[in-house]
Amino acid sequence: MQALVQLRSRFYAITRLFVWRTTNVGLFRRLWIWYYRLGTRAFLSLCRSVERATGAEVLEAVYLRRGGGRGEIVAGASDLDFFLVLKPITSEVETAFVTRFWRRYFLMQHFFPFWGETLLADENELRNWLSTSTVRAWEVPWSWKLLSGRAMIHAAPAFPSRRDLFSEGLKNYWEVLQSVLVLSRLPRKMSGEASLGCGLRLRNAVKSTVDILRFEASAVGRDADLWQLTRDQILHRESSRFAPLPVQKLSRILRTARPDDTGAEA
Question: Any idea what DSSP says for residue 56?
Answer without folding.
Answer: S
